[in-house]
Amino acid sequence: MQVFATPKLNHVDITSDFWKRYRELVVKEVLPYQWQVMNDEADIAIADDPQNNGQDKNSHAVANLKIAAGEMEGHHYGFPFQDTDVYKWLEAAAYSFSYHPNDDLKTITDNLIDLIAKAQDDDGYLSTYFQIDAPERKFKRLQQSHELYTMGHYIEAGVAYYQATGNQKALDIATRMADCIDRNFGLEEGKIPGYDGHPEVELALARLYEATDDQKYLDLAHYFLNQRGQDPAFFEKQIKEDGDSMDRDLIPGMRDFPREYYLAAEPIADQKVPHGHAVRVVYLCTGMAYVARYTRDAALLAACDRFWNDLVKRQMYITGNIGQTTTGEAVTYDYDLPNDTDYGETCASVGMSFFAKQMLNIRAKGEYADVLEKELFNGAISGMALDGKHFFYVNPLEADPAASKGNPGKSHVLTHRADWFGCACCPANLARLITSVDQYLYTVTDDTILSHQFISNNAQFSDGVAINQSNNFPWSGEIHYDVKNPNGKAFKLGIRIPSWSKKFGLEIDGEVKTLPVEDGFIYLDVTGKAVTIDLSLDMRVKFMRANNRASADFGKVAIQRGPIVYAAEQADNKAPLWSYEVDTKTKPSYAYDANLLNGVGVVKVSADKVELDSTDADLYAEDGDQTSETVDMTLVPYYAWANREDGQMRVWLNK
Question: For 149-185, what is each residue's pLDDT tens digit?
């Protein structure tokens, strides 16, 4: 009987041209630019925001820490969670050191750690709004305060920075912070029997448990998850005790959302489907999956499965975006997928990537990796322009500058990326995903190495095992593996077969092989010292339809090739884009254009363009034939739209 010993993953170098460009862009452009913004040194134009989430171009995020540390005088500026812009930036910088060491940046980040340590209270508490302007209100309005959310983001950053640099102070800040939370929350007498209005600390505490092996941090994360919704009136009781007048609110309007918005209307075990704010949903799901894996809590795992199935099968856009409405940046109801008012917050796509990664850690299921891929190549990176200095908060699947300007209900949809936002959660969140993407390619279980993302890389494992994956993905589906196993210890290797590639070719050591697909993966036993694998994926251009319960997409098609979802832009197609009817019986064409949008695959489809009626014509007339001409419609990857001239965009096209 063959005995398998799975090597542990030590390090991954990204060699993909596609992702190397993004990762270098973050180091060279995004991190310096965001540091300037957070220090109020950048000349920026703040994005128009119909929700009035703060439209002053100042960030003051670093200044808030300096005030809390006693290095400056003044009042807190911005949202109660303004600190998190700094923490997510710090986390992104930490990950970047693994592939782009930078002494100048490290000097900045080391000094930032010193500042954060100085700003932290003696008892471990750190949330600058309350330290500066409202120390008497600490932990007293958790529905709105984001205190645990804020500290959770530092804990994540502190763990990442410690692991990247060995900086013990960074980890000590995190453990002191978590110890403060542990002293204040729980069911014991004298503690607060509650939780934060915005999930985040749960997943952060699980990461801290991994870094320290201290059980109390996992227990605390487990407590927060199990306590959520046990007393549905908890937030209201706190508001009453803290002072019920509206001028006491930390964020105006937050009390008006129902309990479901905060995922607090009932215990998680009783919640059938996710409701409320999309980012809260996916952060909660990530924490649930993390903690369920370590505690084997069956109720939490069942909730993960319920929430995953509802989001992916009934509430997710084809690009991976979630959160359909601008009202509360929330998910709505099954199959409600409007394209022109879609919110699709960048943070929600980033958070969905976190959730997918944690589900892969629980079980080897190709569906999780498919969604992760969808986010990485579509929903998440669409949040940043190709120059690294402009960003989308909202990611629609249909846009028209005239509609955004003329219809207040569509004013949240920008047709060009903005310099910055008053609520600037998205830019740094995307930066930390891109700089850590090397952590999303492999999942190592007790008996198998899973290779589930086709991002070319050199991976080093224990026992001298090395996996080199080379490709030109996502433009080519030819995937090559060189596996070195010098000690000859047998292990299993699983390779994902994407759901978009029902047909595939496989050669092992140059010999054609047929292996069964098991829940989205093929498996082979690596028993010798070396093996080569060649996988050929189906990269045909496909016309996709939505479930016919999704009324917004009925009678329409979207274009997809490999993992890439395509969009039509006015820059390539004469407006209006609604006047095109795609001929799905004529084979599309595909070509790679190295000079367009930093190099993209371009798809052309045949379509009839209907001639517009005269502006003097009646608004309504009896139906009849309309004059049209056959044209080629040009489409580019969705992630790259809005990098040229301002204009209309559509993903779903008339059939």
Answer: 999 999 999 999 999 999 999 999 999 999 999 999 9
For domain 443-473+478-537, the question of CATH label 2.60.40.1180 is answered with: yes
Q: Name the one residue in this structure whose structure tokens are 């010999």.
A: 511
pLDDT score, position 52: 47
Q: Any idea where the domains of the chain sit in the sequence?
A: 76-378, 443-473+478-537, 541-614+624-654
Tell me the C-alpha to C-alpha distance, in Å, between residue 536 and each of 505, 507, 540, 542, 629: 5, 9, 12, 17, 38
Q: Tell me, what amino acid is at 75?
A: H
pLDDT at 422 over 80: no
Residue 648 has pLDDT above 70, yes or no: yes
- The CA distance from 201 to 243, in Å, is 26
Token pair belonging to 101: 């060491």
More confident residue, 57 or 410: 410
Name the residue type at position 324: Q
Instruction: Report in angstroms the alpha-carbon separations of 510 from 180, 325, 484, 614.
Output: 59, 51, 16, 63
Enter the DSSP assignment of 185.
Answer: B
In this model, does residue 501 exceed pLDDT 90? yes
Q: Length of the chain in residues, anyone?
A: 655
**Rounded CA gap, 528 and 52, in Å?**
62
Distance (Å, whole) CA 84 – CA 61: 8
Token readout for 332 is 């709505």
Copy the structure tokens of residue 199.
């999930």
Q: Give the residue, 146 or 426, on which the prediction is more confident.
A: 146
List the one residue out of 530, 362, 380, 353 whose CA is nearest residue 453: 353
Residue 628, both tokens = 């049209």
The closest of 321, 317, 320 to 337, measured between CA atoms, is 317
Cα within 13 Å of Cα(307), Cβ side: 31
Residue 603 is which amino acid? V
SS3 of 441-456: CEEECCCEEEECCCCC
Give the integer Cα–Cα distance in Å for 45 and 68.
28
Residue 250, helix vs strand vs coil: coil
Helix axes 278-295, 346-362, angle to 10 degrees: 20
CA distances from 402 to 457, 576, 617, 641, 649 (A): 44, 11, 21, 17, 12
Asked whether 142 and 197 are in contact (CB, 8 A), the reply is: yes
The structure tokens listed for 266 are 């009932």
- Give the residue among 562, 567, 556 at the shortest CA–CA distance from 542: 562
Separation of alpha carbons 237 and 231, rounded Å: 10
Give me the chain's average pLDDT, please: 95
What tokens does 237 get?
């009781």
184, β-bridge pairs: none
Q: Cis bond leading into 474, ω under 30°?
A: yes
Concatenating the DSSP letter of every residue in 557-614 gives: EEEEETTEEEEEETTTSPSPGGGEEE-TTSPPEEEEETTSTTSEEEEEEEEEEEPPPP
> Which residues lie closer than 8 Å to 101 by C-beta, 6 or more apart?
none
The rounded distance, in Å, linking the Cα atoms of 618 and 58 is: 50
Catalytic residues: 329, 425
C-alpha 147/C-alpha 198 separation (Å) is 9
CATH number of the structural domain 76-378:
1.50.10.10
Q: Is residue 3's pLDDT more than 60?
A: no
Supply the pLDDT for residue 57: 64
Task: In whole angstroms, give the CA distance from residue 185 to residue 195.
Answer: 8
**Helices of type H across 166-314:** 168-184, 201-212, 215-227, 234-242, 278-295, 298-314
In this prediction the pTM is 0.96
Indicate whether 630 pLDDT > 90. yes
Token readout for 369 is 């990796």
Q: Determine the average pLDDT of the residues in 600-608.
A: 98
Confidence of residue 424 (pLDDT cuts 50, 70, 90): confident
